[in-house]
Amino acid sequence: MSVFETLDASKENYLDIEPLDYLIDHFECLNVNRSILTIEISRAKMDLEMGLPVSQKRSENLMKLINLKNTFATSIATVERSFSGMNRVCSKLRSKTTAGHLGDLLCISLNKDLASHLDTEVMIDSWAAKSNRRVNV
Q1: Contact indicator for 1, 68 with CB cutoff of 8 Å
Q2: Which of 2, 24, 29, 114 is 20 to 30 A removed from 16 (C-alpha atoms)?
Q3: DSSP reduced 3-state for 49
Q4: What is the pLDDT of residue 1?
Q5: Which run of H or of E encompasses 5?
Q6: In order along the chain (137 residues), what is the average pLDDT of each group of 10 residues?
């Protein structure tokens, strides 16, 4: 995982070419050109000094490596959190819940910080307007 620190802008060894060789060797399917990558890294470092973000158009090979880093899970904490949430949602009382409904409940449970900001009245009114059901109040 220390190789991925090379692609983290907050780290001291940001964009060092030597650790990136490991990624290039082990992920040949990315078709990263080393010589062009070296040029892209020098451009990216100059852009960073000027306070500019890495240009995706000018750094095709570098963006392949950054996208690879972004797809790797750096820890299993998120997976463990998801399983704990699933165990809370899928209890003995909800053992016959469908997969789709369970997924929806799990999504709400894992994103409860975002769900607390939702206006439920608007959501209920929208749902009631879409369905042709009468609601007795």
Answers
A1: no
A2: 29
A3: helix
A4: 56
A5: helix 2-5
A6: 76 83 85 90 87 85 86 72 80 77 81 79 80 63
d(C-alpha 88, C-alpha 23), whole Å: 39
Given this model, what pLDDT does residue 135 score? 58
b/e per residue, 34-65, with b = 16+ CB within 10 A? eeebeebbebbeeeeeeeeebeeeebebbbbb
| Three-class HEC string of 57-81 | CCCHHHHHHHHHHHHCCCCCHHHHH
Query: For residue 16, how far is the Cα from the chain centroid?
Result: 24
Closest CA to 81 of 117, 106, 116, 115: 106
Structure tokens at 92: 């003995």
pTM: 0.51
Rounded to the nearest 10°, the torsion over CA 41, 43, 48, 53 is -90
Of the candidates 65, 11, 8, 69, the one whose C-alpha atom is nearest the C-alpha of residue 36 is: 65
The tokens for 1 are 């995982």
